[in-house]
Protein 1
Amino acid sequence: MLLYAITERRKLRSSLADFVENAGRAGVDRVQIREKDLPDSALYEVVRDAIARTRTTQVRVLVNGRPDIAVAAQAQGVHLPSDSLSVSSVRKVTPPGFLVGVSCHKVDEVERAASEGADFAVFGPVFDTPSKRGFGPPVGLSELERACTAVRMPVLALGGVTSANARLCIEAGAAGLAGIGLFQSARSLGGLVRDLKAMRKKDSVAE
């Protein structure tokens, strides 16, 4: 079960740095810094701070859409929008072990990301959510299942995912869950992570 928190600092009750640190301590696996409006220098400092605040945890910090800043700030990876650079081109300028994730909205995009060597894909929106309506109607659980079975790389469910419907995504084959509100709105981030991780363990035993 991969838990992938995506930041949107304007919706945080705390500072972005505090949230990233708390996510790392709670057991979130990866955090994507998605502050698209920040100038390059400010984004670089945010990423550097996030890395410093999570150095003693297992969380890996990725930067949205900016492999240059990710490498310069010594982040562990980059997340590419569906219309961004190809995974293969990013691999040419990033160090070994550097994570590359891709946002996908169609099954063929997931297949292309896998063929190019992506480490994982984030697929959605699975459910209706205001922030993703620009990508069209929700893809639904059946398309999520198609995407998960089409490739061997991890596919994470995104878009309207909550603790109440997370199990449906897992049952559809998702290797994990991604989101903004799922993590930023949690009353107890540690409690949420424990519940989601336990859910996956139960499903694995049942299988």
Note: The two ends are 15 Å apart (CA to CA).
Protein 2
Amino acid sequence: MTDSVLDTVRINFDTHTLWVLNLALAFVMFGVALEISMHDFKRLWKSPKPILVGVCSQFVLLPAITFLLALLLQPQPSIALGMFMVAACPGGNVSNFVAHLSKGNTALSVSLTAIATLLAVVMTPLNLQFWGSLYTPTASLLNEVAISVGEMVRVVALLLGVPLLLGMLVNYAYPQLAKRMGKLLKIASLLFFVVLVFLALYKNRTIFFEYIFYVFWIVLIHNLIAFFTGFSLAKICGLSPANVRSITIETGIQNSGLGLLLIFTFFDGLGGMALLAAFWGIWHLVSGLLLAGFWSRNTSFENEYPLVSGEEEH
């Protein structure tokens, strides 16, 4: 396989299906936002440290470490750009569920999802442009596409920011209705989104099966490093076990669905990028649930590192 092959492969994704995928992601974020209240943000003013650590882990440390990993592994340019795209995205929409299963601080996880999603409107395009331009092999790809950071900000705002604000508004005005709608809508819209991604992969199954084993090990290493990044930073900062778990999960489970949409919108389904983001979207569910299963059964963590005052799990 030559470098040029995967970097020129395009995943077929028609315009109609792309719009449906956009709507599905918007509904996923709306469902997540229905469970977010202003009380979650007020709590952060009393104890902002975990949020600051989580945001730093997601938007500063992970992209920087991804850059170092790309230098070490030297993957094909389109694969490397896919790595930068995933690292630039906010936490994934299933992270709150996984944090709950892990006996982490669910309130912190939900708050991080909300704040990271809002910050992603600006940080995702900027991080992709900055690290992608800094790494020479991907800089040429960015120059060929000539994406507009401003245009990407607009798209991310429509996909994430608007549904998030609308969901929070419904929660504020009709909290009981939001609670009932939230559980059903988040699950239903997420399943619909996953089905659409699988259909897209099925239509391109020849390309997917031909190159999946090339990206498989890269995704595994990258995802493991993402989890380790969140865990290490949270532990170094002296956070409680519940908060350590939530930040670990928020850093390791990325919104690769957003990444896929941006790849299809701005990069014409560039093969290496699309395959890496798609496989990440599958694998982080597996790795996240495995980690949740381990932590939910492991009590020695709490015994060794008891909750500190002011950081109780809510």
Note: Residues 86 and 243 are 23 Å apart (CA to CA).
